Amino acid sequence: MDFEDIETVAVLGAGNMGHGIAEVAALAGYEVRMRDIKDEFVQSGYDNIEWSLNKLAEKDQLTQDEADAALDRVTPLVDVAEAVGDVDVVIEAVPEKMEIKKDVYTDVEEHAPDEAIFATNTSSLSITELSEVTERPEQFCGMHFFNPPVRMQLVEVITGAHTSDETLDTIEQLAEDFGKSPVRVRKDSPGFIVNRILVPLMNEACWIVHDDVASIAEVDSTTKFDMGLPMGSFELSDQVGNDVGLHVLEYMHEVLGEPYAPCPLLEQKVEAEELGKKTGKGFYDYENGGADIPTDAGREDVEHRLLAVMANEVGKLVENDVAPVADIDEAVMLGGGFPEGPAKLADKAGLETLVETLEAVHDETGEERYEVADGLREAAESGGFYGSDDEDAAEFENITVSYPGEMVGHIELDRPHRMNTVSPDLLAELGEAIDLLSEDDEVRSILLTGAGDKAFSAGADVQSMASNATPLEAVELSKNGQETFGKLEECPMPVVAGIDGYALGGGMELATCADLRVASERSELGQPEHNLGLLPGWGGTVRLANIVGEGRAKEIIFTAERYDAAEMADFGFVNEVVGNDELDDRAFELAADLAAGPPVAQRYTKRAMHAGRDDTDAGLEVESQAFGHLIGTEDVMEGITAFMGDGEPNFEGK
Following DSSP, what letter does each residue of 392-414 receive, concatenated? Predict the structure, then answer.
């Protein structure tokens, strides 16, 4: 089955995952047959899809006509033959029980076309074992979506022992066409990538509390505020469902052995039916306030222990060829919402320190789960999962700097899994990149964009920057951002911001420092800080008024509303609004046009304008002095000659 031949998809199971996957497929334009074992189950799934699509339309993420068309592409069914008889791909999303899934595939095999691909949405079970109950193991793979499928970007595409490369390639292309980011899991191993990292992390948190090393509050404060993860470990377990985590652990324990033995504390919670949010009580009581995690109870020894366990799992995945380091980090950031991948977090902590942590706990407890994996030990000896900081190391981790031609230097904010939010590391790298391009004689303009089509930048990464900051630290954070963004504003060459998606808070403040702004039609911009009881802290209270005037600036900041690109163009903030598919080309075209301009004149023009903001006389003085300087330059002679000859000038900045 080639990707180009896929038109119809069957989704087996109409529960939370099933109806979510069906909605994703329908939104991508595919005909969908959604099947469950009872009419009421499949109707409930269909109703949930209708509700979700209408919500997307209400939020202007699609039109009502598009929502209605997507719903029309979904056919709810109970009969297996009718559901799979003429489909190209079957995505199974039934309960996470091996025997239930095997029974489903036995039935489906009788009715599905010979060329159809089977893909299971299992989160941990063996792809190989499931494939062997079918007559097409080479056309069988894992396609693991994350909950909720409509919002979560990651899809793990997992090979079984018999899966063909053609099948994997096709399913990866299908996932991309669904608007998702596929990461390939190269070997069938329990938990695949994300759950292989997260579930042992949650289990280790339980062991730390069970063994009276630390309290739940200390562990979750460490996880959420010191490590910067989206949730505390126990908070995450409650969110996922303690029974779900235990089920995955039990399977890992069965297949991988004693290092994955579930902690009794977790087993006790499940036995007491305290399963987390869904039952109202887990490690936290959700009928009495929920997870109230202190911001200042973190401990370094707990952080090292949790990081060490995650690093050990990364080492095992690498040494067993399940996935390379970069793919592991990408998957966990996309699927787990980590600000950085577990390998990068471990490298920053120091792998030698983490190896020593594991060895010390192993000596103390004798437990197999603390035995250092060969993959971790080898990485520590090599200077880290990403190697030592030598000349060949990647220059930037949170941004990319490229040279697309036409004397344009391109800075791309590269944290799409976090909506390109600005973290301390990104801020530091941005300053370095601006300096790098400003000093490059081969670069005449800068193009600034955000990776992906969801956001230019959705603002500051509050989780990693300000959630546990003291007032003095917050002042320094504000000054640091102001200075870094100021570098962009004062950059001697023209700067173009290509805005696609959200430009909110600090993201809009960053765009404010560009000279020109081009935005796609779907973009939304705003300064929502007042909704948080804050104010724009990276120059927005001053710089925005310089562009749109004080009245409009106050309106944008005080209302804390989001404005579409057309409205911001009316305000004078956005210079040009283009079609969604045209943004990249138009932003580069504009940057290239500016790069072809006279660099000395551009530099002095920016200086004069900036000087004249607060002091007209000062601006005029810079202007007159610059005019006198420019009149004798080779660029002026080039411009006059080209003008007289009706040609295009070739400015060289001389």
Answer: TS-S-SSEEEEEEETTEEEEEE-
Query: Helices 342-349 and 325-336: crossing angle, nearest 10°?
Result: 110
CA 368, CA 455: separation in Å to the nearest integer? 44
Record the tokens describing residue 298, joined without a space.
């973190």
Quick check: helix, strand or coil at residue 81?
A: helix
Query: How confident is the model over 422-452, as pLDDT tens digits?
Result: 988 899 999 999 999 988 888 999 999 999 8
Average predicted confidence (pLDDT) for the chain: 91
Helix (H, G, I), strand (E, B) or coil at 631: coil
* Cα 245 from chain centre: 23
CB atoms under 10 Å from CB of 126, counted, come to: 20
Helix, coil or strand: residue 86: coil
Question: In 560-650, at which residue ranges do the beta strands (DSSP E only) sit?
Answer: 563-564, 576-578
CB 458 within 8 A of CB 419: yes
Tokens of 101: 């899934």
Give the distance from CA 527 to its chain's centroid.
21
- Tell me how far apart the alpha carbons of residues 399 and 651 are, in angstroms, rounded to a whole number: 30
Whether residue 144 lies in the annotated active site: yes
What's the average model confidence in pLDDT over 615-642? 73
User: Residue 262: is the preceding peptide bond cis (ω within 30°)?
Assistant: no
* pLDDT band, residue 468 (cuts 50/70/90): low
Mean pLDDT of the region 388-416: 80
CA pair distance 608, 601, nearest whole angstrom: 10
**Three-state SS sequence of 535-579:** CCCCCHHHHHHHHHCHHHHHHHHHHCCCEEHHHHHHHCCCCEEEC
CB distance 63 to 57 below 8 Å: yes
The two structure tokens encoding residue 505: 């808070």
> Tell me, what's the pLDDT at 544?
95
Structure tokens at 616: 């007209």
Q: pLDDT tens for residues 226-270?
A: 888 889 999 999 998 999 999 999 999 999 999 999 999 999 999
How many other CB atoms sit within 10 Å of the CB of residue 441? Answer: 8
Catalytic residue chosen out of the listed positions 19, 111, 144, 417? 144
Q: What is the pTM of this model?
A: 0.71
In 3D space, the residue among 252, 271, 285, 7 whose CA is nearest the CA of residue 126 turns out to be 252
Q: Are 217 and 294 in contact (CB under 8 A)?
A: yes
Q: What are phi and psi of 449, to 5 degrees?
A: -140, 175
Per-residue pLDDT tens digits for 39-79: 999 999 999 999 999 999 998 889 999 999 999 999 999 99
Distance CA 316, CA 318 (A): 5
Between the alpha carbon of residue 455 and those of residues 367, 417, 524, the distances in Å are 45, 10, 9
Beta-sheet strand order (sheet of 445-450): 399-405, 408-413, 445-450, 495-499, 516-520, 576-578
Give the DSSP letter string of 435-476.
HHHHT-TT--EEEEEESSSSEEE-SB-HHHHTTT--HHHHHH
